[in-house]
Predict the structure.
Amino acid sequence: MDNFSYVGNGDVNAIEDLYRKYLKDPESVDFGWKKFFEGFDFSKANFEEDGEIPENFLKEFKVINLIDDYRARGHLFTKTNPVRTRRTYTPSLDIEHFGLTKEDLDLEFAAGSEIGIGKAKLSKIIEHLEETYCTSIGVEYMYIRTPEQVKWLQDKIETKRNKPDFDAEEKKEIFRKLKEAVLLEQFLHKKFVGQKRFSLEGGEALIPSLNYILEKGANLGIREFVFGMAHRGRLNVLANIFKKPFNQIFAEFEGVDYEDELFDGDVKYHLGHSRDRTTDRGIDVHLTLSPNPSHLETVDPVVGGITRAKIDKYLDDDSKICPVLIHGDASIAGQGIVYEVVQMAGLKGYKLGGTIHIVVNNQIGFTTNYIDGRTSTYCTDVGKVTLSPVFHVNGDDAEAVVHTVLLAMEYRQKFKQDVFIDLLCYRKYGHNEGDEPRFTQPVLYQAISKHANPKDIYLEQLDQEGVLTKEQAKKSEDAYLKILEENLEESKKMDVAEIEHFMENTWKDVPGEKEGDFDKSPKTAITKKAVLDLADRITHLPDDKKIFRKIRKLTDDRKRMVKEDRLDWAMGELLAYASLLKEGHNVRVSGQDVERGTFSHRHAALTLEDSEEKYYPLAHIDKKQGDFWIYNSLLSEYAVLGFEYGYAMTSPNELVIWEAQFGDFNNGAQIVIDQFLSAAEDKWHIQNGMVMLLPHGYEGQGAEHSSARLERFLQLCAENNMQIVNASTPANFFHVLRRQLKREFRKPLIMFTPKSLLRYNKCVSTVKDFTVGGFQEVIDDSGITKSKAKKVLFCSGKIYYDLLKMREETKRDDVALVRVEQMYPFPEKQLNELIKSYKNCKEWKWVQEEPGNMGALSFMLRHFTMVPLSFVSRPDSASPATGSSVRHAHRHQELLETAFN
């Protein structure tokens, strides 16, 4: 019957009806059912002449339904909770619910073959099911729609009753890692009383589970692991999995300052780490632990980006690298980023070959009980969205935990899909070691205070089995504690704490910023021949591809631009990509609808008219070019920006871009911007060169799509942490993109891009503009006689063209328009030189489209100290812009008139 597992999906009465139809006409039922009914060798022999179905035959179906219910619902009746009594679920798995009685327990049923034990008594079948599905491990998988995956899991789970079978040496290894985890936490608690460390106590089984993930993964061909986790248990993972020296960790507790005075650093339980390790079986693997903020789960997409970058560049094989995300129960259920990341798992631009998700389930979030923290039954129910198997395992049963992760690793490697492991445990202390949990959970913590730690529980088992005596364990524990004591003494002699770049090898050829590096942009021009050749490649469409006629017209228009020497924004952007690709750099772009571009300007991916095939002109620049990837993302900002940030973190010599559909949508990813883009170099000593493209400009489209919130980015600027640019010409956009890879250092680039200017006839550049110099931080006014200028209007972006039109209409030759293309780092040197050239100027104004409480106004007033600066803006407003096009036009005209008069 193991070939007929589909039977379990049936209802007894429905199957009976099907069988009656079969008796009348075998061809009237589905082929699978037909074969099933034929398969019972006893069926025909026992049927009465009148066609009445024998009772024992019907009971076979009832037993099959019982088996099926154990598979589907057995996880609800497990012994997985070490400190709490499980909630009661109905109906139960009692045989009466399946039309069976106690008298049936001694009857033999062929349905036993379904679980691999052959024909067996009902009592034996139930015993097998109870051990398989209702002990220390609960499994959810019956919702998976691929029969091969379901069958694989059933075979793995049911043939061995889902129980581990470790030899003595393996058991000692599990104990060793459990011992290290428990003793380190106890040592820290004793030596650094009251200091925050976000202890792993109660969930120490995480350490042997991670150790066996490395061991099993390495045996299955994995050579790199990328970890992401929040603060709880992080120090234990760093010490006992990553082998970060104990003295370094202890020095951070001792309060030793960092060796680099320009580096502010972060708390010890946020730091990243990287390490080469050799497994116990002699296989070399590389481990990366991404740094993370206190914002739980924000690191998840960053780990994804790091992993994908390594797959694309170094490995080109997702079976050789594995991401491991360690969650908390409250955060995996409560943080929306988890859902976004899970939805990315199978998408072309973001797939990783499967992620191992481990939830350290403390059954509490700070002071909030799980019953108040989610509606779903389990914190891991988000895993079912992508039909991932979910394992629930008792954290006190060390062998069950290790058994589960070994199974998860096999599944991941075979099916390239995510797996979730819900590690049911507890949190011994409060949210931090100074917190009093009995304020809010007195009953729970009364039980926890009496509960033995996982090491002692496992040692009792090993002692009874004769595998390891308590005396032997005591000797090994004393030896480990001695090592900790010696390292503690060493840490007290350390004058400064070492700063480890957690991706030192990746960034070894990118030295970092030096003083004066921002005084002037490097040369980024290319030759005229290169411009023309690249433009030809960009606009070439193969004759054998059926391209939509409007696309052919678009490329013809682009060819005409080159001939007429009037290149628009899209051509400037595509030339930047093409030139970098030609030089061997990879270019990756992602975001919502980026292939075409929200405003239909880019068309970097051309869909053929008669199929879903796409043609990428930028992938056909040169035989030796870099790779060009562009992906329309899922409708997410938070996860996708985090992913691209992680990708860029691993790719110092690639151009990595995320584009917002509209610039204001960046606020959906504000945590990544605040915690990673703007602060990571100061917190974690890591560079990153990723680019954000944010469409920006006031065009009467309402409050939502006018402002990319320039003011917010400028408020985050300090210590040359990132670049804020609002370019006004295609060529300057070209140069700033190329500049990202032509400096000896990397900084995030926040680029405010246009909408209406994408097709504005004055917003063009000549071929020469691409062949001379580099990015211009400030663009002077070349359209007036400087000696006549009585007023200088400083501005940036789109409003320059509105001011220019106003000047032409009013014929004002005494007003100069100066464009501040880069607002941060503030181009003080360039502006000083420019100001000196306006000898007769009496008035200096900053002009912006945004309200006075937004935009660059407050930033400019603070930094523009060379001359007295007045300003022109819209009135202060709670909303970025009006929703009325008439009111917009009126206010805009008023702003322009004020600027000139």
Observations:
- The mean pLDDT is 92.
- The first helix runs from residue 12 to 24.
- The first strand starts at residue 108 and ends at 109.
